[in-house]
Design a protein that fits this description.
The complex is a heterodimer of chains A (82) and B (398). Chain A is mainly α and 82 residues long. Chain A has helices at 7-21, 34-37, 41-55, 61-66, 70-81. In chain A, helix 1 crosses helix 3. Chain A starts with 6 loop residues before the first helix and ends with a helix. Chain B has 398 residues and is of the alpha/beta class. Chain B folds into two domains: 5-230, Thiolase/Chalcone synthase (Peroxisomal Thiolase, Chain A, domain 1), CATH 3.40.47; 241-396, 3-Layer(aba) Sandwich (Peroxisomal Thiolase, Chain A, domain 1), CATH 3.40.47.10. In chain B, a hairpin with a 3-residue loop joins strand 12 (377-384) and strand 13 (388-396). In chain B, helix 10 crosses helix 11 (290-304). The chains are: A mainly alpha (82), B alpha/beta (398).
Chain lengths: 82, 398
């Protein structure tokens, strides 16, 4: 399962999950920062649950602390899933 | 100089609709918001007040509190900013249980092998409503919840009055909120035989058979009287007195002689510097349970003496059901708006007298209060499981 994950798939799942949390869909782009989107640590904890469910990837506290943009989150998830 | 607490804004979301004036007008007309044995806030849309993010981060009881709070803040003219140093504005909100719906859904999810939300605790905690209001409006004075079952709303307001009188703060956003129309709470109240089998809330009527569960919230803005006058605030009324006692008797049943409840009424009157003859209206706790309405009738007679036979006594719960931790705040707001209009709203559906329950329960629709040479005064009673009694004495502004 893990090897078949594409960046596009991850991007879609991440964008859908973030849109549920509040930010406008059109603002959710690769270079958007979580700060700009008003996505905080509780939002990222919810996002990581979705990611774990869909891709079997666990994002730990250090991982979450290191990602600042949507693109960084997607890349991290893809690398962990691969 | 004695510091006094005046009400400068009110807001409510109740089974009669959204808005404090909606509650007042519909109740006064003898309408009921109870449908199929429940007092639900069906007209309430949290997104009318809150962003997606705010609404997701709030249990329904908090959403109701924020909507009522937004109305009260606007009513007080605080929409464009606080008229006081933020550290001088407190937020004290009562609830009976807190975010029970969020607790239930997360427990069910975990039980079924699903996830527990990272938001579970912040949603269910009983202090979530004051936290949300504090953040939304930048209230940086003391903020906390008050937990005392069905007297929580009244305790919160009484505590807020004391915070102003003592000089701790200049203003308080206070009230109560509850949203427990959930499968668990419904089953639990039913199991203890507290709720009505008929699904009809008819306080003080011989046929009453338990309370009808309701949900909602009311929030008010209290300000120190001189400060409020100095800024030209709209003053709706003044909280003249607050009395709180305990039955020290039983976890759910009231004392049959209503001694604790009567002592709270006397204490509220003494705090106000008033006598029983000064009371123009009593907003009863009036749950529609066989025990409460009998004990409360005894207590009103004990506290008010001869005045008890003449003063109109009615229960808001006849129109909206029992809002538990929100009840005291919602009923206080309903009482204040009734006093301003010079009416005693009705005990909706009251028809059959029971022996010994012989007060004037105001059947039908609202009735004009006897005119006096000063604005009308009322007592608003709240009694909670645990034997908690809280009574507020309020006077409409002149």
């Amino acid at each position: 399962m893990a090897t078949t994950v594409t960046a596009e798939q991850v991007e879609t799942v991440v964008a859908d999950a973030l849109a549920e949390l509040g930010p406008d869909r059109e603002l959710i782009k690769r270079d958007a920062t979580f700060e700009e989107l008003d996505v905080d640590s509780l939002d990222l904890a919810e996002l990581s649950q979705v990611v774990e469910e869909k891709f079997g990837v666990r994002l730990k506290g250090d991982d979450i602390a290191s990602i600042k943009t949507v693109g960084q989150a997607v890349d991290l998830i893809v690398s962990k899933a691969g | 100089m004695t510091r006094r607490a005046v009400v400068t804004g009110v807001g409510a979301v109740t089974p009669l609709g959204v808005g404090a004036r909606t509650l007042h007008e519909r109740w006064s007309a003898g309408n009921s918001g109870i449908v199929d044995g429940r007092g639900a806030c069906d007209d309430f849309d949290p997104r009318a007040t809150m962003s997606t993010k705010e609404a997701r981060r709030a249990d329904r009881f908090t959403q109701l509190a924020v909507a009522a709070g937004a109305e009260a803040i606007a009513d007080a003219g605080w929409e464009d900013g606080l008229p006081y140093d933020a550290l001088q504005v407190a937020c004290i909100i009562g609830t009976g249980i807190g975010g029970l719906g969020s607790l239930e859904s997360n427990v069910v999810s975990q039980h079924d092998g699903g996830r527990v939300s990272p938001l579970a605790i912040p949603l269910l905690m009983g202090n979530a409503a004051p936290a949300a209001l504090s953040m939304r409006y930048g209230l940086r004075g003391p903020s906390y919840g008050v937990i005392s079952a069905c007297s929580a709303g009244a305790h919160a307001i009484g505590t807020a009055v004391r915070a102003i009188q003592s000089g701790d703060v200049d203003a308080v956003v206070t009230g109560g909120a509850e949203a427990t129309l959930t499968p668990f709470a419904t089953a639990a109240f039913e199991a203890m035989g507290a709720t009505s089998e008929s699904g009809i809330s008819r306080p003080f009527d011989a046929r009453r058979d338990g309370f009808v569960m309701g949900e909602g919230a009311a929030v008010l803005v209290l300000e120190e009287a001189e400060a409020a006058q100095a800024r030209g605030a709209p003053i709706l009324g003044e909280i003249l007195g607050y009395g709180a006692t305990s039955d020290a008797h039983h976890i759910t049943a009231p004392e049959a002689d209503g001694a604790g409840a009567a002592a709270a009424m006397r204490a509220a009157l003494a705090d106000a510097g008033l006598e029983p003859d000064d009371v123009d209206y009593v907003n009863a706790h009036g749950t529609s349970t066989p025990l409460n309405d009998r004990a409360e009738t005894v207590a009103i007679k004990a506290a008010l003496g001869e005045r008890a036979a003449a003063v109109p006594v009615s229960s808001t719960k006849s129109a909206i059901g029992h809002l538990l931790g929100a009840a005291g705040a919602v009923e206080f707001v309903a009482t204040l708006l009734a006093l301003r209009d010079g009416v005693a709203p009705p005990t909706v559906g009251w028809e059959e007298r029971e022996e010994g329950l012989d007060l004037d329960y105001v059947p039908g629709s609202a009735r004009p209060l006897e005119r006096r040479d000063r604005p009308a005064v009322a007592l608003s009673n709240s009694f909670g499981f645990g034997g908690h009694n809280a009574v507020l004495c309020v006077q409409a502004a002149g």
